[in-house]
Amino acid sequence: MLSETQILEKIYAGFIGKAIGVRLGAPVEPTIWSYERIHKTYGEVTQYLRDFKNFAADDDTNGPVYFIRALRDYGLDCTAEDVGKTWLNYAAEEHGMYWWGGFGVSTEHTAYRNLRAGIPAPQSGSIAQNGTTVAEQIGGQIFIDSWGWVNPGNPQRAADMSAMAASVAHDGDGLNGARFCAAAIAAAFEAGSIDEIIATAMSTIDAGSTYARVCQAVIDFHKANPKDWRACREMLEAEWGYDRYPGVCHIIPNAGVTIMSILYGAGDLPRTAEIATMAGWDTDCNAGNAAAIVATFQGLHEGWGKYRKPINDFLIASGIVGSINIVDIPSFARELTVLALQLAGRDVPALWQEDFSRRGLRFDFDLPGSTHGFRTEGFNQITLKHSDERHVEGSRGSLEIQLDRLERGQGGRVFWKPFYRRTDFDDERYRPMFSPVVDAGQIVSFKLWLDPWNGDGNLRVAPYVRRTMSGAIEEVGAWDVPSAEGWQDYSFAVPDGVEAIDEIGISIEYFGRLKFLGRLFLADFRVEGPGRIVIEPETEAQEWGAITRFTYNRGHWTKSFGRIQGHTAGDADMWTGHYYAKDVTVSADIQRLSGASQLVTARVLGTGRFYAAGFEGDEVVILKENFGSTVLARASFKPETGKSYQFAFSVKGDQLTFAVDGTELISARDSDYTHGMAGVRLASAGRMSVGRIEIVES
What we know:
Blueprint: H1 4-25, H2 35-42, H3 59-66, H4 70-74, H5 80-90, H6 107-116, H7 127-130, H8 132-135, H9 139-142, H10 145-149, H11 155-166, H12 173-188, H13 194-202, H14 210-224, H15 229-240, H16 251-265, H17 269-278, H18 283-298, H19 305-311, E1 314-316, E2 326-328, H20 329-343, H21 350-356, E3 361-363, E4 375-378, E5 382-387, E6 398-406, E7 411-416, E8 443-454, E9 459-467, E10 473-475, E11 488-493, E12 501-510, E13 516-528, E14 532-535, E15 542-543, E16 546-547, E17 551-553, E18 556-560, E19 563-568, E20 572-576, E21 584-595, E22 597-606, E23 609-616, E24 619-626, E25 629-636, E26 644-652, E27 655-660, E28 663-669, E29 677-682, E30 686-697
Antiparallel strand pairs: 1-2, 3-13, 4-7, 5-6, 6-13, 7-12, 8-11, 8-13, 9-10, 9-12, 14-30, 15-16, 17-20, 18-19, 19-30, 20-29, 21-26, 21-30, 22-23, 22-29, 23-24, 24-25, 26-27, 27-28
């Protein structure tokens, strides 16, 4: 039986592989890029084809991050209908998450519209509802990796669970693709060869299906021609090409490329991803699927270096939860490991269980090669890498900060980014949205150990934060020379302010007379405790379709006259704050401009699950939303149009209270939602104006 650590390391490797494949294949996606054009332009692909400031997001990784949350939200025996609700709950309508290519064109767009119309899964993705062409596009297999990772060594259950999950949008060979890829990942944990993985995955799908037949055609061709993948690609073009299968991106030709790259990659992640990219068709999907399988099988490998280093343990997603969209890959791998252990009926380490819903961060550098996305800025004499040379109890590693011949006055910053803005990206892929992961009042702590090789010891550090709008650096502790005798503890409270924090870390400066050469080790980096958020709209900016620090779903959100303006013909929401914030008071300056509904929200678990309080017609109300509204409390109140009211919605334990202008008007009790984001909401057509917002966790 695989140990907890073995499962964690395999999932970590597999997810890194998925990220590598997607990033490698994304720049040459169809339809403009063809197999021939890729070959003519790049020849043999042996490195990333484009440098990204930060790789924005991709539907291939959005799905594995978000859809698996059905197991958390609805239990380990969740159904297709539950996964359908998960789709609705975490996706913003027509931006982010999926390719919104149009109803009847994009499978995911079609399924989403069906779900919104009240058609439950699996009917929402069935051939009977949507026709064969829509149901058998590639999405059946590109989102399902996590269902394989949470079933290590159990390919049959992985196949069954992935088909259940994929049935939200797919049917027919779309489900065979889900079964094949998830089963292959599950088998890769323990398999002895690539051939064993493929045989196991094949055993979980309909042997008479077109999907099985294209896989078998590639298997047979590979046996006869084990060295020439381009000849295999020519066979696929001739016998299984796009001209034979309707729709924008049918699963069958791409299934052929996926299994081809797995076979011809011969168990090596880089070669597998390169072949899938050079082969054309849906390059990021195929490279991502194949790489996830092979990386899980191969495990972390030093030969991945040139592809792994730019990933830097960091991924961006584009669902509606801003704090979840900043993905620390080691932490996410640990979340999947917890689910895998729960599904297997095994005990979960207590600290991992805490991490599962942690209001904050815990970076332990335990996984081989892990960096947790730390970065450096300043003179290029400062570089970062993982080290297993020094570590704290409970971890196998630390972050090694290499300091190369610093002269007097030289230095730089080493930091983690808890927030991103549009300017941090040089592409627009899947339009991510962000809320800060770290807020004022939280306690940041870490350990340092100095290892000086040359110099006179006068290397000093100071903890700092950076403000995102102004770029101002705020030192939050005294300058200090770290100990060279062992681990030294540092901690500070994140200071209050009206700007979000987008860097937390240490400033480094050398003030000695001799050149400094040496290392700093950083370990046990944590952010803990309740936070405080103050948003002054005049300080924020319009970007990513809404306002900085907010994610949104529907409506038109702008900034004018120093206030946030919300306008909708239906319902519309904006959210901020951490997903695992528990007891909060949400205060906001709210004006009704038109329409009946102006609300603030708390413990927001998604688009369909939250508490809200505010104006509904000529009443004040406390509402509970669970894909339908329930009034928990109400009282008469006639708001004046254009007048500012100070809302205060307090949610503590199971007690919900709502006050206007300092007077408590209504209260209720409900215990279904224990944590979540906060925000503002229009539940029906109208306009509202929003001034200062405060969210205080207790």
